[in-house]
Design goal:
This protein has 276 residues and is of the alpha+beta class. Helices cover 27% and strands 14% of the residues. The longest helix has 14 residues, at 159-172.
Length: 276
């Protein structure tokens, strides 16, 4: 896909739109119709949300579009029930000063899967993605269940559908770059799979791959000293990501910035024989 293959997004008067800020200036019904195109098919097909009213089968509106006039910001929250602690689908995106779109967060949760409280400490306090405090017992349970760091539930395997829709949406604004900051090593590898390259952090990613190989510094640190540093974890994306989350790197996981040119796949692969 290239932006030339996507029709430019127009407002109700037929004028072209070039940013989230411009979309957010439209009447509510118009901007919500535009933003609904980003929501994965699964929300409508599996969970029965109506594509026009955004309501659940029992008539309750559970898709919330937060897109304030005057700001270049969009947040979409989809919950199956109003009382659900976690969103079924959550995305936050923003304009940048350089005519790019930033994909800030995207979370897709299976609401029927077990929940692991890794997002709060053992006293129940929010831990800001374990940057303040960790909940080791819950992290161990999550890891054993096949989750990655910062993941509270299994996903729904629909990121591909979302990202295809999102890329078309960005192209329809005449924007040719998506930027992001992966929260974890496993996120970075996933984004590589979808065609991203690195603005900063590529040398670190290559160093990580090299040092997780037999004889490398990180390979030697998989010494069984914690549940997250077991021999053999270097063989998978998830294993490496938990070890990095556990602080195995000599530096903080920080300043990893990535970008994707619309319609292009960068072909970056910093873990050539990766398995998940």
């Amino acid at each position: 896909m290239s932006d030339s293959m996507v029709s430019h997004l127009l407002d109700p008067d037929g004028l072209p739109l070039f940013s989230l800020r411009e979309i957010n200036a439209l009447p509510v019904v118009d901007k919500e119709r535009i933003y609904a195109a980003i929501v994965p098919d699964l929300v409508f097909e599996r969970f029965g949300f109506d594509r026009t009213t955004f309501c659940t089968p029992d008539g309750q509106q559970r898709i919330q579009f937060i897109c304030p006039e005057g700001l270049g910001l969009l947040r979409i929250e989809v919950r199956r029930e109003a009382t659900d602690r976690d969103c079924l689908f959550f995305v936050e995106v923003a304009d940048t000063p350089y005519r790019q779109i930033e994909l800030s967060f995207c979370l897709i949760n299976d609401p029927d899967a077990p929940r692991f409280n890794i997002d709060c400490d053992e006293q129940g306090r929010d831990n800001s993605f374990a940057t303040l405090r960790r909940n080791i017992p819950e992290e161990i349970r999550a890891m054993q269940a096949g989750l990655s760091p910062n993941q509270v539930r299994l996903g729904l395997k629909t990121f591909k559908n979302f990202f295809e829709r999102f890329e078309r949406f960005v192209a329809s604004l005449g924007i040719d770059i998506i930027v992001a900051e992966p929260l974890s090593y496993s996120n970075a590898i996933r984004y590589e799979h979808y065609g991203f390259d690195y603005t900063t952090g590529k040398q670190l990613m290559l160093w990580i791959d090299r040092e997780f190989r037999p004889g490398g510094e990180l390979f030697r640190r998989l010494d069984g000293s914690t549940p997250f540093r077991q021999p053999g974890m270097e063989k998978s994306v998830r294993g490496r990501s938990w070890a990095i989350h556990d602080g195995i790197l000599p530096q903080a996981w920080d300043d990893i910035k990535i970008y994707k040119a619309i319609g292009q796949h960068a072909g970056v692969n910093t873990f050539s024989d990766r398995v998940y």
